[in-house]
Amino acid sequence: MQKPDSIIFDMDGTLWDAVDTYAESWNVVFRQLGIDKTIHRPELAKMVGWEGKKVWKAIMPDYDEEKQQEIYAKVNEVRKILLPQNGGILYDGVKDGLKELAGKYQLFIVSNCAKGIIKLFIDWAGINEHIIDEIAYGTNYMSKHFNIQQLIERHNLQSPVYVGDTEGDGEQSRLAGIPFVFVSYGFGATDDHDISFDNFTDFTRYFMNL
Q1: What's the rounded Cα separation, in Å, for the pair 133 and 186?
Q2: In terms of residue numbers, what domain contains 143?
Q3: pLDDT tens digits for 146-202?
Q4: Are strands 89-90 and 16-17 parallel, antiparallel or unpaired?
Q5: For the chain, what is the domain count?
């Protein structure tokens, strides 16, 4: 892996854990609609990193796609209210690490979340000055590798890497044609990576010393 000029991060499972808030957003909508269903953390944690369409099909298999989309849209509106209030758990070392890394690299975020969620995370975490740009799945409903390429072209990146916590992140990095850095403290597992780290502090130290 050559020395990068930029780092593109996944969000959920890489920078923070907001699964409890995500689950609550589903449950609020189910209560509002009188749907006898409750989403629990373990169930939703397995879906972290999935594209929205795959999530709503898994959670609401008994509804047609139009109804699934309608409910999912309501969930994301509730989520936009809950996230600034409840937030999530920022992983150890992330805030200080991003500040350090931003002095050496261009930093970005690409996530399979709804439109507007990355910005809410950035505001909640207080990292606005460190993140140059972001693209969410909900912006264009395209896969991560497409959105990674969009950032590469938009900012003329020469040697970016993608940092994520799932096997899918690795697959999307390969499709985008860039190295994959795996962080093992998130929600997934994979052996398909160029390098891996058990915590964000070690990740930061390594890239600051390149």
Answers
A1: 22
A2: 6-17+89-208
A3: 999 999 999 999 999 999 999 999 999 999 999 999 999 999 999 999 999 999 999
A4: antiparallel
A5: 2
Model-wide pTM > 0.85: yes
Q: Is residue 1 part of a domain?
A: no
CB atoms closer than 10 angstroms to residue 185: 15
Q: Which two tokens stand for residue 63?
A: 């509804």
Tell whether the model's pLDDT for residue 22 goes beyond 80.
yes
Burial of 102 by CB count in 10 Å (0-12 exposed, 13-18 middle, 19+ buried)? middle
Q: What is the CATH number of the domain that holds 164?
A: 3.40.50.1000
Mean pLDDT for 50-76 is: 93
| 43 Cβ contact partners less than 8 Å away, ≥ 6 residues apart | none
Query: Residue 117 — very low, low, confident or very high, per pLDDT cuts 50/70/90?
Result: very high
Considering the domain architecture, whether residues 170 and 126 belong to the same structural domain is answered as yes
Residue 109 Cα distances to 12, 22, 34, 36, 54, angstroms: 10, 19, 36, 35, 21
CATH number at residue 26: 1.10.150
Specify whether 134 is located in the same domain as 30.
Answer: no
